[in-house]
Design brief:
With 440 residues, the protein is α+β, with helices and mostly antiparallel strands. Helices cover 74% and strands 8% of the residues. Helix 1 runs antiparallel to helix 3.
Length: 440
């Protein structure tokens, strides 16, 4: 009975517990649903935030990519600007070097002119002194009635007097001849110094023209670069320093080349003199053999004929015909250019026959071969390929700073020199060489 009672009580208590727990379980489910809904909303919100964040990330990445691109572009631009500044500095350095050398050439030429002027005046004074002395001598002889050496002899009173007067006449003749020779020599020297003086003055005038051309071009470039680059004043200072160094180096190198060329020329003269001696000896031997078989009249006729032929050839050179350029080779360029020696120099001109300046001469010569080269000397100095003077070949263009000439070999150039001399030959080292350019 008790056992049954305890079992019933246990069942009742379990049932009561179950009935009490049911409402609590229902409340938790609702809360869970609400919580689930809240979590889903939070999830959606997070997903929205994620999406927004991803969009922002993409935008940031795009901005970063664009920024990197801009950085690269700026770096490239800076590099290009740096290259341009370096190029500008190099250009100005070259121009300053050229101007420095022209100014030095002008200064040297002014010194040469002063020296030549003094020599010319001294020679002219000597000429006038000797001329006046001869006039006084003639006047004295006229006043004394001694107008000829024959009259002096005719006035002799005896054989001894004749011998004495003959000795006197001989001495007098030697004296007069010596004085006349001195006068002729002084007159020729004065004329040579005068011509040299005029040529040097013309060279000075041309150098001053070339200097003005280079300075005007440099001022134009300086204005352009100063407008482009903020720190160009620093670059200009560096360019001036570099130009000073290059100027000194080029002067030294050109002086060494000039001395070397002078040694070569001196040696060539020795070779030519030896060859002339050999030729003269052979000619003398041939003439001696010929004299044995021919009469004196035949020899005279032959000599006259030879002289006539030589004179004819000389006359023909003054009326030479200009040959066609031929194929574009350095030697042909040099040969063609040499045909215009003697034609006039005209500032700014490009005509080989009517007149041209130095760069106009180079421009016109190459144009004749169908080759277009820059018009100005400074532009020609940067055209083509640079070669050393030691490796210079006919047809190469040598730039001296405001002036150019065409190398023809054997240490010589042909160039439009000055208004006084026109197109002529000169030593390749007559001025400081800046660069040698090959256009072919």
């Amino acid at each position: 009975m008790k056992k049954f009672l305890y079992t019933s009580i246990s069942i009742i208590m379990t049932l009561i517990t179950f009935l009490v727990a049911v409402p609590s379980w229902a409340a938790t489910s609702s809360d869970l649903e609400k919580k689930q809904q809240q979590l889903e909303e939070e999830k959606n919100k997070l997903e929205t935030e994620k999406s927004n964040l991803q969009n922002e990330k993409n935008a940031s990445q795009n901005a970063l990519n664009e920024a990197n691109s801009n950085i690269n572009s700026i770096s490239e631009s800076q590099s290009e600007v740096g290259d341009q500044i370096d190029e500008a500095q190099a250009t100005i350095t070259d121009l300053l070097t050229s101007i420095n050398l022209i100014e030095i050439d002008i200064s040297n030429k002014q010194t040469e002119i002063e020296k030549t002027q003094a020599e010319y005046e001294a020679a002219k004074e000597q000429e006038e002194t000797l001329y006046n002395a001869m006039c006084e001598r003639i006047k004295f002889m006229y006043e004394k009635g001694e107008m000829s050496y024959a009259m002096i002899l005719m006035q002799a009173e005896s054989i001894n007097d004749i011998l004495n007067k003959a000795t006197y006449v001989e001495k007098l003749y030697e004296y007069d001849r010596e004085q006349l020779g001195k006068y002729v020599t002084a007159k020729n020297e004065a004329q040579e110094y005068g011509e040299q003086l005029e040529e040097e003055k013309s060279e000075l005038e041309t150098s001053q023209y070339e200097l003005e051309e280079e300075q005007a071009y440099m001022e134009e470039l300086l204005a352009q670069y100063e407008a482009q680059y903020d720190n160009f004043s620093v670059q200009l200072t560096q360019a001036k320093q570099s130009a000073a160094v290059y100027t000194a180096q080029l002067q030294k190198q050109t002086e060494e080349l000039k001395q070397l060329q002078a040694s070569i020329d001196a040696k060539q003269k020795e070779v030519d003199a030896a060859a002339a001696e050999v030729s003269s000896a052979k000619a003398a031997e041939a003439a001696e053999e010929k004299a044995k078989s021919e009469s004196e009249s035949q020899t005279t006729t032959t000599t006259t004929t030879n002289n006539t032929n030589n004179s004819s050839n000389s006359s023909g050179n003054s009326n030479k015909t200009i040959s066609a350029p031929g194929s574009a080779t350095g030697q042909n360029v040099a040969n063609f250019a040499c045909q215009f020696v003697g034609y006039p120099y005209v500032a700014g001109g490009t005509s080989l026959t009517e007149g041209c300046d130095c760069s106009g001469f180079v421009y016109a010569v190459y144009k004749s071969f169908g080759i277009t080269v820059p018009r100005t000397s400074f532009s020609q100095a940067a055209y083509g390929t640079e070669v050393s003077y030691a490796n210079a070949q006919p047809g190469d263009v040598i730039y001296y700073g405001g002036h150019v000439g065409i190398y023809i070999g054997n240490g010589q150039i042909v160039h439009a020199s000055t208004a006084k001399t026109g197109i002529k030959y000169s030593s390749a080292t007559y001025r400081t060489i800046i660069t040698v350019r090959r256009f072919l």
